[in-house]
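For concreteness, we quote verbatim a single protein encoded this way:
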Amino acid sequence: MAVKPEHGARWRRLAKFHRETLHGYERRLVKIGSEIRRIRECAGLPQHVAEEAEALVKRFFEVVAGFPPEVVAVAVLWTAAKVAGVPRPLEDFLRCSKAEERRVRRVAWRLKEVMKLGGKLSIEDYVKALAARVNLPAAVVKAAVEILERNRRVLFGKNPWVSAAAALWLASLKRFGLLKALAEAAGTTPASIRNAAKRMRI
C-alpha cells in the first residue's frame, strides 16, 4: 500500500525505514551471492554446493550478519560442501578469497551451532556454546542465564552472541583476561561486550 500525505509523518518514517531495511538486506544478499559464485568457480565446486551455500545465508542471515561478504561466502561454501558430502579443506576456499581465516572459522562455528540445534537457539544455547569454547564451569553458565533472563526486555533485538558473552563476563565477576577470550569466541569486540554488560541489571 502506498503511503499518502494524509497518513502523516510517522507513517512516512516507518515506510522509509522499511524500504531502507529491505534494500539493505537485499544488497547484502546480492554481494554475498556474487562472492559465493566467484569462489565456487575458482575452487572448482559443483553448482549445487553454491546453491546450498546461498540457502544457508538466507536461512541463517542473522547468524552471519555483521561479517564482510567475503568472510561469509567462504564460511557458507565450506559448510555447504560438508553438508553436500563433498568436503574440501578450508585452504581451497581461502586461496580464492581475501577473507581472514580466523573470521571464517568463527562464522563457520556459528553456523555449525545453529544447524546442530535445528536453527533455533535459546538464550541458554548461546551461553552454553560460548562457555564451552572458553572452558567456563556450569555454575557460571547458570548465573549468566539468570542474568539474561532478568534483562530480556533490555536485550530484545540485540546481538545474542554479544549478550551471551556479556552475561558470562558478568557472571564470572569480570575476570581478568576472560573478556578477550569471550570476544574472540563470540566474533565481536571487547568494547561491544562491555557496552552490553553496562545495560544489564545483575
The chain has twelve helices and no strands.
